[in-house]
Amino acid sequence: MTSAREVGRNREYVTFTGWYADQPVTISSHGVGSAGAAVCVEELLRAGVRRIIRAGTAGGLQPDVVDGDLVIATGAVRDEGTSVRLIPAEYPAVADAGIVAALSETAGAAHRGVVLTSDLFYPMPMLGSRLQQWADAGVIAVEMELSVLLVLAGLRGVAAGGVFAVDGNPLASADMKEYSPHRDVVHTAADTAVRAGLDALTRPAT
Prior knowledge:
Shape: globular
Number of helices: 5
Number of strands: 9
CATH class: Alpha Beta
Order of helices and strands: EEEHEEEHEHEHEH
Distance between the termini: 23 Å
Number of domains: 1
Strand order of the largest sheet: 4-8-7-5-9
Strand content: 25-35%
CATH superfamily: Nucleoside phosphorylase domain
CATH architecture: 3-Layer(aba) Sandwich
CATH topology: Rossmann fold
């Protein structure tokens, strides 16, 4: 961005505003998990934003969704505990078609499909993990915040979507001991995801 300035900083929430592609843009961090993300999204919506794209990382759930790939979400499974406190689970978390189309143009080679939003990072053996079930259903990746963004945006009539850099596959390691997002292939993909998000965000709405 140009003319960027910090406009807010509290706990994990850091917000900058500035210009990108000759348009005003705000960038905000929302921390980890659906509940914290909901606070950030709600306050952005109250401030008057009209389009939101979450750019972050996700774990691949399909064999061909590998480290360094990009994923564009067409919708999200609401496997988290926040959005059901806003509206019943039958309400879908669907990405805006215009955002998906714009991301498909700006992200280059990318997987498109439904992602799983789960606020459980370390499952316990008593209940186990349902990741394989979702993978068998064709869900392509897992992350921790998108569904609450899509639900809030849908309820407010705001266009929203998500683009993700793949940083591993949780099905490959049950205890996550081999998981490490701190690798060049992930950093490069994350930079590409952020750039794709900014480019898509500032394209004319369709």
